Amino acid sequence: MYEAYTVYMRILLAEDNQNLGQYVSAMLKENGYAVDWVKDGDAALRYARDPVPDLILLDLLLPKVDGIEVCKTLRSEGVMVPIIMLTALGESEDKVVGLDSGADDYLVKPFDQSELLARMRALLRRPPLTQSEVLEVQDVSLTAATRVALHGADEMQLTVKEYAILEYLMQNAGQVVSRNQILEHCWDLDYNPFSNIVEVYIRQLRTKLHDENEQYIETVRGAGYRFKR
Q1: Domain-terminating residue out of 79, 102, 124
Q2: What is the pLDDT of residues 22-50, one digit of tens each?
């Protein structure tokens, strides 16, 4: 058995299904979390802003404002709390839309209680981002709180997943990171290790960095990728 977090770990649950909301809320409380349960997107935005929760469980198909818009709005405001989307939509395209809107993870209903708790623990173990945290390598800089990416003086328009991969490469600048390390870091538990998704995103990042000659992201054959210092 895992040790429960203290009651001071606050979770915002945004779920409009009465039965599922009651079940998840009770389960979280039994595991030591404090829970605020709301049933529409407007309330989710209000409760997510002040005070900011430690983690948000966000239904995709909420009334008033759907989960995608809630996620995008919070990220645009610099609210970087971990978000797990809970939804009945399990197609790959739906997952991509959810993750690119700013979610950190995606769990398809019906889900196993132990898997949800494991995913929550994984996200809650990550160090919190600070408003002043800026990562700079060569002439590329990332501001964690606002997720602004600059290439020289020009802002790059990155999806959430592109930003996460670029941030991971820059945090490990000068070191080789393997394809599996990128998958494990940026996709949490829900990824297909046999897909070419990492290669696709690396290609997109190189295009946005105008990196035709691998000045920034170097391919190390048989090993992975390295962001050059």
Answers
A1: 124
A2: 999 999 988 888 899 999 999 999 999 87
